[in-house]
Write a structure and sequence with these properties.
The protein is α/β, with parallel strands linked by helices and 365 residues long. 44% of the residues lie in helices and 14% in strands. A seven-stranded parallel β-sheet has the order 3-2-1-4-5-6-7, with helices on both faces. α1 packs across α7. The two termini are 21 Å apart. It binds uridine-diphosphate-N-acetylglucosamine (UD1).
C-alpha cells in the first residue's frame, strides 16, 4: 500500500509525526508532500527535526497568499505530483487550505482520499477552516473521525457509511513528548525568570482576533491586566497584523515572545498556570496536560474540553480576565481523545480498506 500525505501548516506536522512513525513500523510506503503553506523554520523545519519526521519527498513551495491564490497554486501543482505517483490513498489532515486543495486535486483524479480529523465542526461560517473541513469531508472516500461527537456530525450530514472512529493522532505525539520532557525545566520560565506555575502561556492567530485593530487592542489590554505574566508566543500572522495596525504588543503583564519548537512549547505549557489561545490544537493539548485553558473564540470544535470543565470560552474584555484567573477545575480521568494509539488504528484501517486493483473505482460508490 502506498499512502501519500499532503501537509503544509504547523498543526499538520504534529499529526504527520504520529502517522509517519506508525507507517514506518508497519512498513507502509509513505510519500510526504509539503505544500509550503508554512515556510518559516520555526513553523515548519523544527517540527520535522524535533519530532523525527521523514523529510518531505516533494516540496511545492507555494508560500503565503490570499485564500484563492494559495489554494489555487496548490491545486495546480498537485496534478502532476498525483499523476506521477498514483498512490493508493491520499491522506489529508485537519482543516487548512492545504487540506482542501489536496482532497480536491485527488478526488478529481479518482485517487481515494482519506481525511484525518474528519467531522469537526464549529458551525461558524466566518472561519476559513469550517469551509475547508466541510468540503473535504464531502469529497473524501474515508472519514477518520477523532471522537464520537465528530462521527455524529458526519452522520447528520449523511456520511456515516464512510466514517470510522480512530481516535486523535495529536494525542499520540503529545503523550510521547510530554513523557520525554517530564522533569526538564520550562524554557520560558528559565529565560524570563518566572516562578513555577506563576505565568500564563498564550497564542493568538485566528483572523477573527487579529484582523480588527480595535478587537486586538482590547484583547492585549485584557491580557495585560491578568495578575501574573502572560507570555504571548507570536505567530507571524499576528506580528504582520500588529505591524499593519501599528500596535505594540508588550504592555502591563503581557510579554511577547517568538514561537517555540514543539518540545519547548509542551515543556513550557506543563509548568504554566494556564493556557490562553485561539488554536484548536493547543486547547486540546492543554486538556491532555491538565493545564486549564481559556479559548478566545465564541465556540470550539473540541467541545469535550469545555464539558469536562478544563476549557472556558471568553471574549476580550473583563470576562477574559475573569476566565483566565478562575480556580483550577476538579481533576478528571476522562479520555475523550483516545489512548495515544490512534495512528496505529489509521494504518490498520487504511490497509483493510485499500481498494484492490480488481475492485471498482472508489468513486463509483
Ligand atoms: C493556517 C491555517 C489555520 C491553522 C494555522 C496554524 C488556513 C486557512 N489556515 O493559518 O487553520 O490553524 O495555519 O498555524 O489554512 N506567515 C509567515 N510565515 C509562514 C507562514 C505564514 O510569515 O511560514 C504569515 C504570512 O504573513 C501569511 C500569514 O502568516 O500571510 C498567514 O499564513 P497562512 O498560512 O495563510 O494562515 P495561518 O494564519 O498560518
Amino acid at each position: 500500500m502506498h499512502v501519500m500525505s499532503v501537509v503544509g501548516a504547523r498543526p499538520q506536522f504534529v499529526k504527520l509525526a504520529a502517522i509517519d512513525k506508525a507507517f514506518r513500523n508497519d512498513s507502509i510506503h509513505h510519500t510526504i508532500v509539503h505544500t509550503g503553506q508554512h515556510y518559516d523554520p520555526l513553523l515548519s523545519d523544527v517540527f520535522f527535526e524535533d519530532l523525527g519526521i521523514s523529510a518531505p519527498d516533494i516540496h511545492l513551495g507555494v508560500g503565503s497568499g490570499s485564500h484563492g491564490k494559495q489554494t489555487g497554486a496548490m491545486l495546480a501543482a498537485l496534478d502532476d505530483v498525483l499523476a506521477n505517483n498514483r498512490p493508493d490513498w491520499v491522506l489529508v489532515y485537519g482543516d487548512t487550505n492545504s487540506t482542501v486543495a489536496a482532497a480536491l486535486a485527488a478526488v478529481k483524479m479518482h485517487i481515494p482520499v482519506a481525511h484525518l480529523e474528519a467531522g469537526l465542526r464549529s458551525f461558524n461560517r466566518r472561519m476559513p477552516e469550517e469551509h475547508n473541513r466541510v468540503l473535504t469531508d464531502h469529497a473524501a472516500d474515508l472519514l477518520l473521525a477523532p471522537t464520537q461527537v465528530a462521527a455524529d456530525h458526519l452522520a447528520t450530514e449523511g456520511l456515516s457509511d464512510r466514517t470510522v472512529i480512530v481516535g486523535d493522532v495529536m494525542t499520540d505525539i503529545l503523550l510521547d513528548v510530554r513523557d520525554s520532557v517530564a522533569g526538564s525545566p520550562s524554557p520560558i520560565m528559565e529565560e524570563l525568570a518566572l516562578p513555577e506555575g506563576g505565568y500564563h502561556l498564550a497564542t493568538i492567530h485566528r483572523p477573527d482576533n487579529t484582523d480588527d485593530a480595535q478587537r486586538l487592542e482590547l484583547l492585549f489590554d485584557s491580557l495585560a491586566r491578568v495578575s501574573q505574566p502572560v507570555v504571548l508566543l507570536a505567530h507571524p500572522r499576528l506580528v504582520a497584523k500588529c505591524k499593519e495596525h501599528g500596535i505594540e504588543i508588550n504592555r502591563g503583564n503581557l510579554v511577547v515572545h517568538s514561537p517555540l519548537a514543539y518540545p519547548e512549547l509542551i515543556a513550557s505549557a506543563l509548568h504554566a498556570r494556564s493556557i490562553i489561545t485561539d488554536s484548536g490544537g493547543l486547547q486540546k493539548e492543554a486538556f491532555l496536560l491538565r493545564v486549564p485553558a481559556t479559548t478566545v473564540r465564541p465556540e470550539t470544535e473540541w467541545v469535550e474540553t469545555v464539558e469536562l470543565g478544563w476549557n472556558v470560552l471568553a471574549q476580550p474584555g473583563p470576562d477574559l480576565v475573569k476566565a483566565v484567573e478562575r480556580p483550577r477545575p476538579a481533576d478528571t480521568h476522562a479520555t475523550p481523545y483516545g489512548d495515544g494509539h490512534a495512528a496505529r488504528t489509521v494504518a490498520e484501517v487504511l490497509t483493510e480498506r485499500t481498494p484492490s486493483p480488481s475492485t471498482p473505482d472508489a468513486h463509483s460508490r
